[in-house]
Design a protein that fits this description.
By secondary structure, this protein is an alpha+beta fold. Helix content is 49%, strand content 13%. It is globular and about 80 Å long. 48% of the residues are buried.
C-alpha cells in the first residue's frame, strides 16, 4: 500500500511512495504529530537523479527492519531538494555547522520532536561498521536516538537548543574594499594553482566542469589577451569532450567525472550543467572560431530538445541508473560494437574499435564508454546513429520531468546566444521563454517549479527571479521586443523588494529565509546573476538605482572577492564590468537582426544592443556616445578606442 507521498507531484517523492517507511511530505501536520506523539523527526533530502539517494532507498528505506524503527519512533519526512531548495539550503547549513565540512545528498537530518536539529549525515548504511559514531549504521543510530528522545536525554536537547541558536546568527563581512580591476590577476594565480595542465580542469578527481570558472577565463582572455587564461580554458574545453563526461553518442554533459581524465562520469545529466556549458562553448566558438566548440554547443542544445523537453519546456534531469545498474544505458561491450561495425560493412572494425577505445576488457566495469583521445574521425558521424540504435533497445534512464524556472532560464539564455550563429535556436529560445512564462508566471505570481500540465505550488526563489530576468534581457537584446525588458524590470523590482537588504541577498523569504550563496558552487550564484541583470537594467534604462544596488552587493562582498576570487568567478566578471563600464551599440532593428553574428563576436564582453532610428552603428557608454560608423566590421576597433 502506498504512503502519503503518492499524493505529491514531485517525481523524487513519487519514487518513495511504495517504501515501507510511513513517509510524510514537508507539511505543518507532520511537525504537529511529532510534538504530540513525542517522536523524533527524521528528514531525508535528495533528488531523483541522485545515485546515492537510490542506494539509500534500496538498502535502508526498502529494508523492513529500518522502516519498522522509523515508523515506530519517528516522524519521517521526505524532501525533494530541487522542489524545495530553501529547505535544502537550510539543512546544508545545519550539516556544515555540525560536521565542519560541506554535505551532499542524500542528506539525513535528525531533530527533536520540536524540530530542532541535533545530528546530520549523508548516506548511512543499514548496518554498523565500527564503534565510532561515524561508523554507526542506520539501525543502531535510529535506535539510539529513539531511546534518548523517549528518555528526554538533557544533553541531546541542550545541544539542539545550542545549534538552533547558532543557526539564527547572521554573519557579516569583515570590511569592504575598493573594487579593482587587478582582482583578475589574483583569480588567474589561484586558477593556475588548481589547474590540471595534462587533463584540463581545476581539481584532481572527482572533476566538475566549473562553468563559472571557464566563463571568467573567457572574459579575462577577451579583455586582456591573456595567454594563460586561453590555455587553461581551451585545454579544459577540449579534454572535457573526449568522451565519458561528454556523451559522444546522444550528446549532452554528465554531472561530473569520477576520474581525472573526464572518462568515467557520474552518468546523470542535469539541465543546469548543460545550459551553462552550452553557453560557454558558444562563447568560445565566437572568440576562437573553432568549429568543434560550435558542434558541442549545438549538440548539447539538440540533446535537451530531443530527449529532455516537451512542448518547448525543459525537464530538469535524467538518472545515472537504468536496468538496475549505473551507466548501463550508456556503455557497450566489445562484441556488440565489433559485430555492429562488421554487419554494416566496415572492413576495419578492429581498428575502429581501438580508435573509439572499445576493448575486450573495457574502460568501465568491463564495458566501454565511447571515447576519442585525438580528433574525432569523419567516419564517426555514420557510426554514431548505429550506436544510438543499440541504445534505443534499452530502457532510457529515469527522467525527472519537473520544469524549473531557474534552470530553464539558464538554457534559454544560452539558446539566445547560440541563435546569433544559427537563427533556429533563437526561434526555439523565444518559444521556450514564452511557454515558461505562460506556465510558471500565473496571476502576477512567479513559481519555482511544476510538472507539465500541472498547477505550480511552490513560489519562486531568488534564483528563479535572477535566471529568468537574465533570459528575458537576452531575449530583449536579440529581439528588441520591449515586453521582455518590461518583464525583466518587473521581476528585478520584485526580487529587490522580497530578497534584498543593504547589500545582502536572501535566497528565500517566509518559512525559510536562508541567505543566498555568493560562491559559484553547483552552478552560478544567483546573487551574481542579480548583479548582472541590475547592471544591464541600469545601462539600458539609464537608471542609476539599479547600478547602485549592484554596486552595494559587490561592495558588501568585496573583501572576500578580492582575496579569493576563484570562489566567486561570476561576481569577479561583474566587478570587472562595473570598473570598466558597459558599451551600448545603438543601431536599427534590422541591423541587429542582419548582423547578429558579427555583433555577438564583438570582443569586449560587456556590450549591449539597443534599437535606434539610424542605420549607423553608434558606440555609446552609459551617459554619452563616443563614435559612429556605417561599417559593422569597425565596431571592435571603435569600442577599443573608447577606453
Amino acid at each position: 500500500m502506498s504512503n502519503r507521498l503518492a499524493n505529491e507531484d514531485s517525481p523524487y517523492l513519487q519514487q518513495h511512495k511504495d517504501n515501507p517507511v510511513d513517509w510524510w511530505p514537508w507539511c505543518e501536520e507532520a511537525f504537529v504529530q511529532a510534538e504530540a506523539q513525542n517522536k523524533a523527526i527524521f528528514i531525508s533530502i535528495g533528488y531523483s537523479s541522485c545515485h546515492w539517494c537510490h542506494v539509500m532507498e534500496e538498502k535502508v528505506f526498502e529494508n523492513k527492519e529500518c522502516a519498522d524503527i522509523l515508523n515506530e519512533s519517528f516522524i519521517s519526512i521526505k524532501v525533494d531538494r530541487e522542489e524545495r531548495p530553501d529547505i535544502d539550503k537550510y539543512y546544508q547549513e545545519v550539516y556544515m555547522l555540525l560536521n565542519r565540512r560541506a554535505g551532499g545528498w542524500p542528506t539525513s537530518i535528525f531533530c527533536t520532536p520540536q524540530n530542532k536539529p541535533f545530528f546530520a549525515a549523508t548516506y548511512i548504511p543499514p548496518e554498523s561498521n565500527s564503534g565510532s559514531i561515524e561508523g554507526m549504521g542506520f539501525k543502531e543510530i535510529t535506535q539510539l536516538i529513539a531511546r534518548k528522545v523517549k528518555e528526554g536525554d538533557p544533553k541531546l536537547f541542550e545541544n539542539a537548543n545550542e545549534i538552533e541558536g547558532f543557526l539564527g546568527q547572521k554573519e557579516h563581512p569583515k570590511e569592504a574594499t575598493v573594487l579593482k580591476e587587478e582582482f583578475y590577476k589574483n583569480f588567474l594565480l589561484q586558477a593556475k594553482n588548481n589547474y590540471d595542465a595534462q587533463n584540463g580542469g581545476f581539481s584532481d578527481k572527482p572533476k566538475f566542469p566549473r562553468a563559472s570558472t571557464l566563463d571568467a577565463l573567457l572574459v579575462v582572455a577577451r579583455l586582456y589577451n591573456d595567454a594563460d587564461a586561453k590555455t587553461m580554458l581551451t585545454n579544459t574545453l577540449k579534454n572535457m569532450i573526449k568522451g565519458g563526461m561528454y556523451d559522444l553518442v546522444d550528446g549532452g554533459f554528465c554531472r561530473y567525472s569520477v576520474d581525472e581524465k573526464w572518462l568515467v562520469p557520474h552518468f546523470e545529466k542535469m539541465l543546469y550543467d548543460n545550459a551553462l556549458l552550452c553557453g560557454v562553448y558558444t562563447k568560445a566558438y565566437l572568440l576562437y572560431e573553432d568549429k568543434t566548440y560550435l558542434h558541442i554547443a549545438k549538440e548539447t542544445a539538440d540533446f535537451w530538445y530531443n530527449f529532455m523537453s516537451e512542448d518547448g519546456l525543459f525537464y530538469s534531469a535524467s538518472d545515472a541508473d537504468s536496468e538496475g545498474g549505473e551507466g548501463s544505458y550508456f556503455v557497450y561491450t566489445y562484441d556488440e560494437v565489433y559485430t555492429l561495425l562488421v554487419q554494416n560493412g566496415y572492413e576495419n572494425a578492429k581498428e575502429m574499435c581501438e580508435t573509439m577505445h572499445v576493448t575486450h576488457h573495457g574502460n568501465f566495469e568491463g564495458k566501454n564508454i565511447i571515447r576519442f583521445e585525438e580528433e574525432i574521425p569523419a567516419w564517426f558521424s555514420d557510426v554514431k546513429p548505429l550506436l544510438q540504435k543499440i541504445r534505443q533497445k534499452r530502457d532510457y534512464p529515469f527522467t525527472d520531468k519537473k520544469v524549473q524556472t531557474s534552470w530553464s532560464g539558464m538554457m534559454i539564455n544560452a539558446l539566445f546566444l547560440l541563435g546569433t550563429v544559427d537563427s533556429k535556436y533563437k526561434e526555439k529560445a523565444i518559444k521556450s521563454l514564452d511557454k515558461l512564462l505562460e506556465t510558471l508566471f500565473i496571476d502576477e505570481k512567479l513559481y519555482h517549479t511544476t510538472l507539465i500540465h500541472k498547477k505550480p505550488k511552490v513560489e519562486a526563489f531568488l534564483e528563479d527571479y535572477a535566471f529568468l530576468s537574465q533570459a528575458l534581457l537576452s531575449a530583449f537584446k536579440y529581439t528588441q521586443n520591449e515586453m521582455y525588458l518590461i518583464h525583466a524590470q518587473r521581476f528585478v523590482n520584485k526580487a529587490l523588494e522580497e530578497f534584498y537588504d543593504k547589500g545582502l541577498w536572501n535566497f528565500s523569504s517566509g518559512e525559510f529565509a536562508v541567505k543566498a550563496e555568493i560562491t559559484d558552487t553547483t552552478y552560478t550564484s544567483s546573487v551574481s546573476i542579480m548583479i548582472d541583470v541590475l547592471q544591464t537594467l541600469g545601462t539600458l534604462l539609464e537608471d542609476e538605482k539599479y547600478t547602485h544596488f549592484a554596486f552595494k552587493t559587490m561592495e558588501y562582498n568585496s573583501y572576500e572577492l578580492g582575496r579569493k576570487p576563484i570562489y566567486y568567478p561570476s561576481m569577479l566578471i561583474q566587478a570587472l564590468r562595473y570598473v570598466k563600464g558597459d558599451r551600448v551599440i545603438k543601431t536599427s532593428e534590422q541591423n541587429i537582426y542582419n548582423y547578429a553574428y558579427k555583433l555577438a563576436k564583438i570582443k569586449y564582453p560587456f556590450t549591449l544592443l539597443k534599437r535606434s532610428e539610424t542605420d549607423d552603428f553608434m558606440i555609446c557608454g552609459e551617459k554619452s556616445c563616443f563614435a559612429n560608423t556605417q561599417d559593422v566590421d569597425k565596431i571592435n576597433q571603435l569600442v577599443e578606442q573608447s577606453f
